[in-house]
Amino acid sequence: MWRLIKAILALAVLAGIGFVAFVYLGPVLFPAEFAAPQTEVRLPVDLGLD
């Protein structure tokens, strides 16, 4: 049972390291996936103050 718990903890740590690496290296390696849309959006707003 202890081996199973250790394996799950090791996988969780590796997944955390992978996630942090993706967060920091993702924009460098895949800039198109992290780029914000470059179109301007204008929407009228009715505040209803009348």
Structure keywords:
about 50 residues, mainly alpha
Question: Concise description?
Answer:
With 50 residues, the protein is an all-alpha fold. It has two helices and no strands.
Describe the model.
The protein has a domain of 28 residues. The chain is an all-alpha fold and 50 residues long. The mean pLDDT is 90. It contains 2 helices and no strands.
Indicate the low-confidence ranges by residue numbers.
none
> Taking all residues together, what is the mean pLDDT?
90
Number of strands: 0
Largest sheet: number of strands, sense, barrel closure: none
Going by helix content, strand content and strand pairing, the class is mainly alpha
Strand content: under 5%
Number of helices: 2
Distance between the ends:
69 Å
Shape: elongated
Question: Which percent range fits the helix content?
Answer: 55-70%
**SSE topology string:** HH
Task: Give me the secondary-structure topology.
Blueprint: H1 2-29, H2 31-34
